[in-house]
Design brief:
heterotrimer, A mainly alpha (102), B mainly alpha (517), C mainly alpha (629), A: Helix Hairpins, C: 629 residues, mainly alpha, two-stranded antiparallel ribbon, membrane (chain B), NADH dehydrogenase activity (chain B), ND/Mrp_TM (chain B), ubiquinone binding (chain B), NADH-quinone oxidoreductase subunit M (chain B)
């Protein structure tokens, strides 16, 4: 992979990341926030693969597999928490879950 | 090895007492009494041994602990520490005995804490390694926090926090100084060690020495306490259970005084001379301020607590007078104050058990119903105002006469402070025991039980004994104090004898080393 | 006999120990009386034996080192006793008068439930007082000095259930302690300067060390005077003694008349060598004495309470002793001390008998006519009063006081003011003494007598009355008799008085005129209080302000209250919660405030936190980009 394609791929990853980030910030529904976090993770994965391909190293793909497993684990924990929140609060609004204020 | 046994007996005794508390509530009490009694016996036995060494150190024990950092388990005993540990164990037994009926819940844990505080105090009085010293300094602090916080009176949480924060903050300053001293000494000699004897005479520039000393001083003056760092004391003493107040007043404050004598003076001779006027002024302020404050209190335990502030002012005055007579006075003051104030706290505790209040405005005219307690209180009130014939007089007199040559103005004010001491001591008598009886008709006040008499009687005997025959204690502390003042061992100065009639009647020299408390 | 010297203070001490340890309930009254009186009686007998031994063999100073008390560095304090003629006179008065008062107390205190406690305190007092006068070092003397203070406290507050007795006791203790502070500082100075606190050493060393009139001995002597002033209730620390009358009458007789309050006289007489080196300080002793004898005399004129009259007269008579010390008439001061102990103890004991007979009535204006009802008490009281008023020729008080008045005229160290004070004081003494006699024993009876004193009360009175009449004959003036048995005792212990040149011819003039003045005073009292009581009322009405002023003891109490006691109490009360603690509380509040501030940001809204993370990341990245080009 030459440098130009790699740049474009990284740019795409950056755009995806920012989209995810913005969506985390503006969404109040926790499920959407979780999905947005997934998008950010995938953006990071994409950046790893692009960088790995650019230098011809396997590390990028190793990291992506790593991120995938981690994301899977995270989603399961995250969903469990969301279920609990829903049970407790009868809502998925993240602003309603402000019981931890100082 | 004996020295280590002293500490281990207390530590393991504490653990045993803590566990046995689950089985039986009497077992921890007996285990504690037994452990402390063994120690008391050992230390009295040591005091009875004649000192054959040429140095003031009677016993030493040095084991490697963390050699790579120059930390050793180094214990040593001289006359001053011996006096202090005898006092520790003596008051320790009394502390256990006085809580016999007072503590009803978590008895095992209570005695665990009690014995660990005593272990910490013993360690502080014995260690000659600064790292270990700091370790024991903390060991003594945390169980005390629990003693106040769990078994104290109404406002115990607040008092326990306050006590902890004051002592811990000042202790950390001391830790900084210890580490600084470690590096300064290491860089100068390339020998990194926490050993007290090696650190003596470390050469450093004045500025550094000044700062390092202030760190040590912070820990000791807060513990003592010296004005304006005294405000933890009235709260802690007032809220602690009787045994806690006894140990706080009788022993914990003494670790501050001991630190001044053992560390500040020998490690920083020039700097201590330099700050002497300020230190003495603080001490004297404490004497007067504490006494006036004591007079203004209505809570009996608080009153006694402020009297401690006043008495500890004499320690500050005497230590920084830097004369042997004054230092002897300080050592006597440490012992006699421990006993007299401890006894007053015990009496306050006994009154509280009976009438459920510490407010003197609700007391009065108790002499008729509890004559024995009244006479004993009278004795200790008199001790506290410095009546000759009781131990405190010897202490205060020596402190003052020794300080006179060092600083006349300060001594003068301190002497006037004794008038205030008279005022608050007599106030105790007046408010609690004299006047018309304030008891309601249905109320009755039982005089001391056999157990309580057995507790107070030794205190009375010791305070009188120290008043009429303080020489054994003085002889015991003498070598250590002369060393402190950096005087090499010299033949004691002959007392001036002018009148020819006296020569046939020279006082028989007391045999050195035969000491009984 | 000197080997038994140590027994003299020890015996009463043992008595006290037995009585304290056995407690209130365990001993029958008879046993308590035997222990209490027996121990002091034995000490008195021992004293008399030693005295006879002393007088016949003429042995001079004796020392008995008992044990080492403590010694540190170059300060060595043995418990050692020193007996010379000065202490001998004091020991004699303490044990002998003390014994009589103990005997008197058996009957006086018989119905009191704290009988044993009373004797325990009394015995303790006697032993402490003996320690004071026998001590060889100033520290041991200080032990006795404070010990008698303690006993005085305990005995003034003996009837503790009355709240004001406790306060009177406390006042006495604290005020004497103020004087003791001066004394203590004096000891520090002496030790710093001379390196010893043994009295005989000090007296030997001082003249070698200091020139006459140099600052150090003057300062030390003034400090010692401070101690003496407190203990002996002299101006300006005299205010505690009238209140001390709250104690039982035997206590007033023993402690607040005969012995303890004269400790100051003993101290100054004992340290005579120092005062010789410090003439300025000695002058102050005289000034204190002169002022005190006048102000206390005036106050005595206006009192209603029988015991308060006696208290003020005690202050005044001790003023005479101080005056005598101040003019260098050392042995006259001691002589007056001894005679005063006899007649004042007598007066207090007789007053006690009167008060007991009248249901604890203290007010003289409610008494009267007791002359016929209590003849024995009247006779002895009259003798005591004659001695106090210095009735010429027949009373012992005349000889002792006349000597002081004469020397205040003739002594080299005296001046005209001292002489005038002494003469005016004598005149006032005559008036108030006989005012007291006439009010109590003449006129009509106002309160009925309920209880006639028994033998144990009258016999000590008679013995003291005999002494108050005849003890004066051991020292007669030059003008007639010229007996100097008493002053000869002090030929080695006390310096002689130096007279001004060519004054001896005036002696009889002064004697006659002061004698006449006394008679005039008695006559005036008779006229005002027996013949024309109205005039007394008129005078009283016209001088009501002065009367009140004197009655309140020249308002010293109010003065001290206003300038010393009140400010300190005010501070103590206002500052009950310790302003220093407020500093630390402020620190705590500051951190709590900060904590409240920062915990606002912890609002629990998830997106807010994410925003924080993003903002932080943006800031960090921006900075990194700016810093690394």
């Amino acid at each position: 992979m030459n440098a130009a394609i790699a740049d474009q791929a990284l740019m795409l990853a950056g755009i995806l990341f920012v989209l995810g980030l913005i969506s985390v910030l503006i969404r109040r529904n926790i499920i959407f926030m979780l999905i947005s976090v997934e998008i950010m993770l995938n953006a990071a994965g994409l950046a790893f693969i692009a960088a790995g391909a650019r230098w011809g190293q396997p590390d990028g793909q190793v990291m992506f597999v790593f991120i995938l497993t981690m994301a899977a684990a995270e989603v399961s924990v995250g969903l469990a928490l969301i279920l609990q929140i829903y049970h407790q609060l009868k809502t998925l609004d993240s602003d309603a879950a402000d019981k931890m204020h100082g | 090895m004996i020295l280590m046994i002293l500490i281990l007996v207390l530590l393991f005794g504490g653990i045993a007492a803590g566990f046995s508390g689950r089985m039986n509530t009497m077992l921890p009490r007996w285990i504690s009494v037994g452990a402390i009694a063994i120690n008391l016996f050992i230390s009295l036995w040591m005091a009875a041994q004649p000192n054959t060494n040429s140095s003031p150190w009677l016993l030493q024990l040095k084991l490697n602990w963390i050699p790579s950092f120059g930390i050793s388990f180094h214990l040593a005993l001289d006359g001053i520490s011996l006096l202090m540990i005898i006092l520790t164990f003596f008051l320790g037994i009394i502390a256990v005995a006085i809580s016999w009926n007072e503590i009803h819940f978590r008895v095992g844990f209570f005695h665990f804490n009690l014995l660990w505080v005593l272990a910490g105090i013993t360690g502080v009085f014995l260690t000659m390694d600064l790292f270990l010293f700091y370790f024991f300094w903390e060991v003594m602090l945390i169980p005390m926090y629990f003693l106040i916080g769990i078994w104290g009176h109404e406002n115990r949480q607040y008092a326990a926090y306050k006590f902890f924060i004051f002592t811990q903050a000042s202790g950390l300053l001391m830790l900084m100084s210890i580490i600084a001293l470690y590096f300064v000494h290491g860089q100068a000699t390339d020998q990194y060690t926490f050993n007290y004897f090696d650190l003596l005479g470390t050469s450093m520039n004045k500025q550094t020495a000044q700062w390092i000393m202030l760190g040590f001083l912070a820990a000791f003056v807060v513990k003592l306490p010296v004005i304006p760092f005294h405000t933890w004391l009235p709260d802690a003493h007032t809220e602690a259970p009787t045994a806690g107040s006894l140990i706080l007043a009788g022993l914990l404050l003494k670790t501050g005084a001991y630190g001044l004598i053992r560390f500040i003076l020998p490690l920083f001779p020039e700097q201590s001379a330099a700050i002497a006027p300020v230190a003495m002024a603080l001490g004297v302020t404490g004497i007067v301020y504490g006494a006036v404050q004591a007079y203004g209190q209505t809570d009996l335990k608080r009153l006694i607590a402020y009297s401690s502030v006043s008495h500890m002012g004499f320690v500050m005055l005497g230590v920084f007078a830097l004369t042997e007579i004054a230092l002897q006075g300080v050592v006597m003051q440490m012992i006699t104050h421990g006993i007299s104030t401890g006894a007053l706290f015990i009496i306050a505790g006994l009154l509280y058990e009976r009438i459920r209040t510490r407010d003197v405005t609700q007391m009065g005219g108790f002499w008729k119903s509890i004559p024995v307690a009244s006479v004993i209180t009278l004795i200790f009130a008199m001790a506290s105002l410095g009546l000759p014939g009781l131990g405190n007089f010897v202490a205060e007199f020596l402190t003052l006469i020794g300080s006179w040559s060092a600083n006349k103005t300060m001594t003068l004010i301190a002497t006037i402070g004794i008038v205030f001491a008279t005022a608050y001591s007599l106030r105790i008598m007046q408010k609690v025991f004299l006047g018309k009886s304030r008891l309601e008709h249905h109320q009755s006040l039982a005089d001391l039980t056999a157990r309580e008499r057995l507790i107070l009687l030794p205190l009375v005997i010791v305070i009188i004994l120290l008043g009429v025959h303080p020489q054994p204690a003085i002889d015991l502390a003498k070598d250590g104090l002369q060393k402190t003042l950096n005087r090499e061992f010299q033949a004691p100065k002959e007392p001036k004898i002018i009148n020819p009639n006296y020569q046939t009647l020279t006082v028989p020299a007391t045999e050195k080393g035969v000491h009984h408390e | 006999m000197k080997d038994f010297l140590w027994l003299i203070p020890t015996l009463p001490f043992l008595g006290a120990c037995i009585l304290i340890i056995s407690g209130n309930a365990n001993l029958p009254r008879r046993a308590v009386s035997i222990v209490g009186c027996g121990s002091v009686g034995a000490a008195a007998i021992l004293t008399i034996v030693i005295m006879i031994d002393f007088l016949t063999t003429g042995q001079i100073p004796e020392y008995t080192v008992i044990v080492n008390w403590f010694s540190v560095d170059n300060l060595s304090v043995p418990i050692a006793l020193h007996l010379d003629t000065l202490s001998l006179v004091f020991v004699f008065v303490i044990t002998f008068v003390g014994f009589l008062i103990h005997v008197y107390s058996i009957e006086f205190m018989h119905h009191d439930e704290s009988f044993a406690r009373f004797f325990a305190y009394l015995n303790l007092f006697v032993s402490a007082m003996l320690m004071l006068v026998l001590a060889d070092s100033l520290i041991l003397m200080y032990l006795g000095w404070e010990g008698v203070g303690l006993c005085s406290y305990l005995l003034i507050g003996f009837w503790y259930e009355e709240e004001k007795n406790g306060y009177a006791a406390r006042k006495a203790f604290i005020i004497t302690r103020i004087g003791d502070t001066a004394l203590a500082v004096g000891l520090f100075m002496l030790f710093a300067e001379l390196g010893t606190l043994r009295i005989q050493d000090i007296l030997t060393l001082a003249p070698q060390q200091w020139a006459t009139g140099s600052t150090t001995p003057v300062t030390i002597c003034l400090l010692l005077l401070g101690g003496a002033v407190g203990k002996s209730a002299q101006f300006p620390l005299q205010t505690w003694l009238p209140d001390a009358m709250a104690g039982p009458s035997p206590v007033s007789a023993l402690i607040h008349a005969a012995t303890m309050v004269t400790a100051g006289v003993y101290l100054i007489a004992r340290m005579n060598g120092l005062y010789v080196l410090a003439p300025q300080a000695q002058l102050w002793v005289g000034i204190v004495g002169a002022i005190t004898l006048l102000i206390a005399g005036c106050s005595a004129l206006t009192q209603y309470d029988l015991k308060r009259v006696l208290a003020y007269s005690t202050i005044s008579q001790i003023g005479y002793m101080f005056l005598a010390l101040g003019i260098g008439a050392w042995s006259s001061a001691v002589f007056h001390f001894m005679i005063h102990a006899f007649f004042k103890a007598l007066l207090f004991l007789a007053a006690g008998a009167v008060i007991m007979a009248l249901h604890h009535e203290h007010d003289m204006f409610k008494m009267g006519g007791l002359r016929k009802q209590m003849p024995a008490v009247f006779a002895t009281f009259l003798i005591g009063s004659a001695s106090l008023a210095a009735l010429p020729l027949i009373s012992a008080g005349f000889y002792s006081k006349d000597q002081i008045i004469w020397l205040s005229f003739a002594s080299q160290q005296s001046n005209i003011w001292f002489f005038l004070a002494a003469v005016v004081g004598a005149f006032i003494t005559a008036i108030y003494t006989f005012r007291m006699v006439f009010l109590t024993f003449y006129g009509e009876a106002k309160t009925s007598v309920s209880h006639m004193p028994g033998n144990l009360i009258t016999q000590p009175l008679v013995i003291l009355a005999v002494l108050a009449l005849f003890a004066g004959f051991i020292e007669l003036p030059h003008t007639f008799g010229h007996v100097t048995l008493f002053s000869d005792l002090f030929s080695t212990t006390l310096p002689p008085v130096t007279l001004r040149p060519n004054v001896e011819s005036h002696e009889w003039i002064i004697q006659t005129s002061t004698g006449l003045l006394t008679l005039v005073g008695i006559a005036m009292a008779y006229y005002f209080y027996v013949i024309q009581p109205k005039i007394a009322d008129d005078i009283h009405a016209s001088t009501i302000e002065t009367h009140r002023f004197w009655y309140a003891g020249w308002r010293f109490d109010s003065l001290y209250d206003a300038i010393i006691v009140k400010p300190i109490l005010f501070f103590a009360r206002v500052n009950k919660h310790d302003f220093i603690d407020k500093l630390y509380s402020a620190l705590v509040e500051l951190s709590e405030m900060m904590s409240a501030l920062f915990s606002r940001s912890q609002n629990g809204i998830l997106r807010w936190y994410i925003m924080g993370i993003v903002a932080g990341a943006v800031i960090i990245i921006t900075f990194t980009l700016i810093i690394t080009p």
